[in-house]
Structure formats: C-alpha cells, structure tokens
Amino acid sequence: MGSDGGAKDLARVLRRPGFLNRKERYAPDYPQVQIVEFDSLRLSPFHRITGLVDARIAAEEAERKRRGEDAARTGDAARGAAARLLDWAANHAATGSRHNMALWVAGRLKAEGFAQWTASSVLREYARRVNTADSRQLDDGEMDDVVRYVWGTAP
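-> structure tokens emitted (155 positions)
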C-alpha cells in the first residue's frame, strides 16, 4: 500500500508504541513511537479493507502489464533503429573508410543507449556486410575491439 518495499515483516512495518525508531539518520535522539490518536469506535469492516487491497493489487498488475508492453515496444523500436543504422552504414561504407564507419556506428549505438553486447553484435553484422573479396577482411575480433574502444573498456 505504498510503504517501504524493504520492510516486509510485521515487526518492522508496525513499530509498537514505546519503542524507538533506531534508523541512523535519527541518531542520537531516536524518536519514540507514540499513539497520536485512538478511537475504539472507529472501525473498518474487513470487506472494505480487502476491497482497498484488491483494488491496489489490480492497479499494480495493470501497471506491470503496461510496463511490459512498453518494454516490448521499446525493444522493437530499438531493434528497428539498430537495423536502420546498420543498413545505412553498410550502404555508405567505402572500402577505405570501413573502420572509421564502424567507429561512428559504435559511437551512435552508445549515444542511443544500446548495450555494449548489442553494439558488438551489430558491428559484427556490419563487418560481414562490408567485407569484399578484394579488401582486407574486418573480423569479429576487430569489431569487438572497436566497441571496447568506444565504450572505454579496451584493455
């Protein structure tokens, strides 16, 4: 119901009156839990409480489903963007500038938030597309080196 997600057990969720809240941020003057208001005639029927909980659970499940659908759409869009970038780079890579184009593609993928492993996969495909029989072959290792260089993880 919007509480601290790390506090799962009843003892932590409901501190009893008279006990201290010993979180570090309150030290050294730990506040003591007190009853601020009590009305024994104010009661909530169980069905009202379960109705509120059921509504909250349904809302959270709907939100999870929406996030999952958004993630799927985002993944589709990302794959489409990477494919378009790959197509463009392969179509515009002249034999003498294939390596420079690989550096540019890796930089664009990083700037767009793609994972390093995705960039390696895209660049390996790029190498396969731009290699010709009459030129020096770009290989997977070289493409991985390009990605590591751009991501700043080169040895």
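The chain has a mean pLDDT of 83.
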